[in-house]
Amino acid sequence: MGATSEEFINLREKEYLISATFKVEGHLVNTVENYLLETSKLVNYKILPDTDDLYKNDKVFKKLVKIEAEAKRQKEIYTNHKL
After folding, report:
1. Domain region containing 49
2. Cβ(24)–Cβ(47) under 8 Å?
């Protein structure tokens, strides 16, 4: 069973919070930022540092990344259970 037309309209009118991470060439950063500002209610925007080498070469950083990933996973489980 699919959504009724009324349910579909309600879903389209609801405001969603979306988090996305993607790579963009440097010359397009301003274009992407401007597009997001013009077409959405931008809540959070930041350019992330490239941590590939740090992850490969630093055991402490790698451990922190794993701890963070598990904490995010647990938070999502908790949040989805409460909603």
Report:
1. 5-82
2. no
